[in-house]
Amino acid sequence: MAAMADTSDGPEEQAAAAVSLRAGDLAGFERLVRRHERLVLGTALRLLGNLEDAQDASQEVFLKLYRNLGKLATEANASAWLYRVTVNVCRDAGRKRRPMAPVEELEALAAGESRGDAGEDQERRRALALGLRRLSERERTAVVLRDLEGLDTGEVARAMGTTEATVRSQISQARMKMREFLEGYLRRRV
């Protein structure tokens, strides 16, 4: 899961970090959180569409991580684990969900938290956010993890607790719905 992994540490450093994490090293846990917090929040925001819910979900994900540090074999395993837990926490939160967020929150995420990009980029982010809102929860999760987070199909299947065939089907359906939405959206905007 290269999208969430920090590649600046070599295998020896990662192994040492994993040992210290399992021993309850708070500084190591803080480094792990800093390394993954933006991606966990970004994934949660894309899945939930509401900044407040995404922040709550992220906090719950990292609390679960802290409680389960001793179970992680290596720090590299934390990446896969975090995706799976983020999806599950967001799925649970989606059941108690508030209305979808204003598009600006999703645009801020897509922009890497910087607003004021060129008009074309803003329009593209707006279309993406609106299109994601129209997908089912499972389709949105599959397409966010695969197309926006860059995971491979197997990683998405493990994170969602399903088969690769199901993921491929959900991604195909989501892409078709997004394409149809974007074509209509762009036609209306021109």
Polypeptide structure, described:
It is a single chain. By secondary structure, the protein is an all-alpha fold. The chain is about 75% helix and about 0% strand. The protein has helices at about 10-20, 25-50, 50-65, 75-95, 105-110, 120-135, 135-150, 155-160, 165-190. Helix 2 packs antiparallel against helix 3 and helix 7 (about 135-150) packs antiparallel against helix 8. The N and C termini lie far apart (about 40 Å).
Question: What structural keywords apply?
Answer:
190 residues; mainly alpha; 9 helices; elongated; disordered N terminus
Would you spell out the secondary-structure blueprint of this structure?
Blueprint (H helix, E strand, L loop, with lengths): L10 H12 L3 H23 L2 H17 L7 H21 L7 H8 L8 H15 L3 H12 L4 H8 L3 H26 L1
Helix pairs in contact: 2-3, 2-4, 3-4, 4-8, 5-6, 6-9, 7-8, 7-9, 8-9
Short description, anyone?
This protein has 190 residues and is mainly alpha-helical. The chain is built from nine helices and no strands.
Number of helices: 9
Query: What's the rounded overall pLDDT mean?
Result: 77
End-to-end CA span: 39 Å
Oligomer state of the chains in this structure? single chain
Shape: elongated
What structural category do the secondary elements indicate?
mainly alpha
Runs in which pLDDT lies below 50 for 5 or more consecutive residues are 1-7, 98-107, 109-116
Q: Taking Cα atoms only, what radius of gyration do you get, to the nearest Å?
A: 17 Å
Main sheet record: none
Number of E-state strands:
0
Give the H and E element order: HHHHHHHHH
Taken as a percent bin, the fraction of beta residues is under 5%
> Helix coverage percent of residues?
over 70%
